[in-house]
Amino acid sequence: INGRAQDPDRTISLTLLDNYDYWVILDAARQRLFLNSTGRVLDRDPPTSISTIVVRIQCTNELVGTVILHEVRIVIRDINDNTPRFQQPRYYVSVNELTPVGTTIFTGFSGNNGATDIDDGPNGQIEYGIQYNPNDPLSNRTVRVAGTLSGNIVLAERLNYEERTRYLIIVQANDRAPFPGTRRTATTTLTLDVLDGDDLGPMFLPCVLVNNTSDCNPVTYRVAIPELADPNKVNPLNVTPSIRAIDQDRNIQPPSDRPGILFFILVGTPTAYPEYFTLNRTTAELRLLKPVSRELFQHFSLVIK
Q1: Which among 93, 107, 110, 165 is least buried, having the fewest CB atoms inside 10 angstroms?
Q2: What are the GO cellular component annotations (predicted)?
Q3: Largest CA distance in the chain
């Protein structure tokens, strides 16, 4: 401001106006403004959120008595002094094992549900990535981040409920400060639970595993019937062991979605077997249709599906 504000020969006098919360100190004689931050911090971030300070300097011409008002606007620049924070300590998602690779399986970081940063500009913008988990090394290759800004998670490898039912995925959020060395990060755990899908067929019981496999040896069921026996007296036939089967996908949810098991006689010898035997499709009860003459048949072999 043109003029001399200190004695002797003073030509102007300066007065500080609209000094909200007394953030500014005026040294009128030297025409300087100072920040009054004693005992407090000037913070652009919440909760104070001070982005600008505006004061007015009243200049009085001591020679002619005229008054001029000067506005001084102080802009507070942001520094990257806050770390991103996830809104939840842990996140969860359940995925069916039959979900195709490339499917988006998690969008839970959208909006304000993911990580937030109270800094301003790039210092407060968040991007996401998958971090290596030494306690679950397979987790970081099972999924990937589809968009670093959205944090949407995509399935990268096929799931198999029978091999693995849970993955612990470490998700990292970092701000986008212009200088990578000043960026701040935070992490959270995304728990991925694998749901059983209908990808396996039923197996007959009892199951005796083939060596070093998860496959069952074929089961042989046996029944003996008297020659020329009346079907009404022997039905249902006493098969040993009882014909039973279970679905290998044992935990499909909800239980109402679990498929039922149906039984059939696929083939048999001699070819006349359909005249003599029938199998209940749901209970697997084997029944005799008419008496069997040993002079015609001494043995039947049926393949059950």
Answers
A1: 110
A2: cell-cell junction; plasma membrane; stereocilium
A3: 143
Say how far residue 247 (Cα) sits from the centre of its chain.
29
Residues 6 or more apart whose CB falls under 8 angstroms from that of 199 comprise 97, 98, 249
What is the C-alpha R_g of the chain?
41
Write the CB contacts of 198 (distance below 8 Å, at least 6 apart in sequence).
98, 247, 249, 252, 259
Owner of token pair 């059939």: 264
Residue entry with tokens 């009882």: 242
Distance of CA 135 to the CA centre of its chain: 18
DSSP label of 142:
H
DSSP code string of 61-110: ETTT--EEEEEEEEEPPP------EESSSEEEEEEETTPPTT-EEE-TTT
| pLDDT tens-digit map of 147-162 | 899 999 999 999 999 9
4-25 pLDDT, tens digit each:
888 888 899 999 999 999 999 9
Tens-place pLDDT, residues 223-251? 999 999 999 999 999 999 999 999 988 88
Cα–Cα distance, 95 to 154 (Å, whole number) = 11
Pick the CATH number of 12-75 from 3.30.420.270, 2.60.40.3430, 3.30.365.10, 3.40.50.1470: 2.60.40.3430
C-alpha–C-alpha distance, residues 97 and 198, integer Å: 9
**Matching fold, domains 12-75 and 85-195:** yes
Question: Could you tell me if 79 and 183 are in contact, meaning their C-beta atoms sit under 8 angstroms apart?
Answer: no
Map out the domains of the chain as residue ranges: 12-75, 85-195, 198-304
Contacts for 289 with CB less than 8 Å, ≥ 6 apart: 231, 275, 276, 277, 278
- Dihedral sign (CA 104, 110, 114, 118): positive
